[in-house]
Amino acid sequence: MENLPDLRVSLGRIHLRNPVLVASGTFGYGEEYKDFVDPGELGGIITKAVTLKPRKGNPPPRLAETPAGLLNSIGLENPGVEVFLKEKLPHLKRLKTRIIVNIAGEKKTEYLYLAEKLGKGGGIDALEVNISCPNVEKRGLIFGTRADLAFSLVKGLKQATDLPLIVKLTPNVTDITEIAQAAEEAGAEALSLINTILGMAIDVNTRRPKLGAITGGLSGPAIRPVAVRMVRQTFQKVNLPLIGMGGIMSAEDALEFILAGATAVAVGTANFVDPAVSLKIVEGLRQYLRKMRINYFHHLIGDLRT
Ligand SMILES: Cc1cc2nc3c(=O)[nH]c(=O)nc-3n(C[C@H](O)[C@H](O)[C@H](O)COP(=O)(O)O)c2cc1C
Question: Where, in this chain's numbering, is substrate bound (predicted)?
Fold first, then answer.
């Protein structure tokens, strides 16, 4: 007998048992949350960024709380792809959920090498191509702010790997749909949006910035209306499935993104407040469908009444 309500959704070739993912950088490589969340109950896990070489990240302090938000300047701290393959991927592969690996680089060649290498190991369902980190100096963000560079990067990645490519967009642009369209034309399977919004906070007593890196990325409920607006605009311009994120704390928040046009959502900063929140959101979506007498979750996607 069919199990209703049916929460399954597809991001192109990636099939999820439900639309709730955990966002990159807020769930480690899966192991960190094993006492709180059964990954088999999630749509999937998006890992913390993996880069070619190990990165130490930015100088401390790297986190500052703001009203309704969190400023971070982690700077893509990670052990590098070799250690990821040897020490992190074997554990991830055993989890009964979709594994999406977030990759970042400063040069196109770094991204291509990473994609080739990760594509060979097996056990990875998709790559999330982070062209949007505000916390790396120089080149990291440039792919996300220029349509021509985003196009050329995604095109190159398509040749380097058969893995589905999810391109993660930055909100730190005038028109996010231009970059979205470039990624679509180049062959992206899906888009993730949004990454953090560039921000800054100052301690007036010391007159110093609250972050060692001076600026950082703002996440949490404060950015949700911006994220929902960008999902809506992108939904109206491209035909790709979208993963919506930015300040999702509850099932109701997640539903805003779905009605705006997202096929799935990712929960980020909320994991720091309640490590089991992602599972509560899955349950909340199920209850909403029952209350509304909707059998298939995917009927809600983009179903905004205007
Ligand atoms: C501490 C922290 C680390 C993050 N690290 C990454 C990362 O490694 N790669 C990435 O693409 N996004 C990273 N992000 C961005 C999140 O994945 C997400 O796009 C953003 O925080 C908005 O969602 P939220 O408001 O639910 O946190 C990070 C966010 C936070 C708060």
Answer: 48, 72-76, 130, 195-196
Q: Per-residue pLDDT tens for 205-221?
A: 999 999 999 999 999 99
What amino acid is encoded at 285 in this protein? L
Q: Is the CB of 51 under 6 A from ligand 1?
A: no
- Spacing, Cα 2 to ligand 1 middle (Å): 36
pTM value > 0.90: yes
Number of the ligand 1 atom closest to the C-alpha atom of 48: 8
231 membership: H or E segment, kind and range: helix 224-237
97 annotated as a binding-site residue? no
Residue nearest to atom 5 of ligand 1 (CA): 25
135-192: pLDDT as tens digits: 665 555 688 999 999 999 999 999 999 999 999 999 999 999 999 999 999 999 999 9
| Residue 269 near ligand 1, beta carbon < 6 Å | yes
| Overall CATH class of domain 9-57+75-197+219-300 | alpha beta
Residue 195 beta carbon below 6 angstroms from any ligand 1 atom: yes
Which portions of the chain are predicted below pLDDT 70?
1-2, 134-141
Domain boundaries, the chain: 9-57+75-197+219-300
Exposure b/e, 29-67, CB count within 10 A at least 16 = b: bbeebeeebebeebbbbbbbbbbbeebebbeebbebebe
> Which mutation among 133, 143, 196 tests ligand 1's pocket best, with the greatest number of atoms within 8 A of CB?
196
Q: Which residues are catalytic?
A: 133
CB-count exposure of residue 108 (10 Å: 0-12, 13-18, 19+): middle
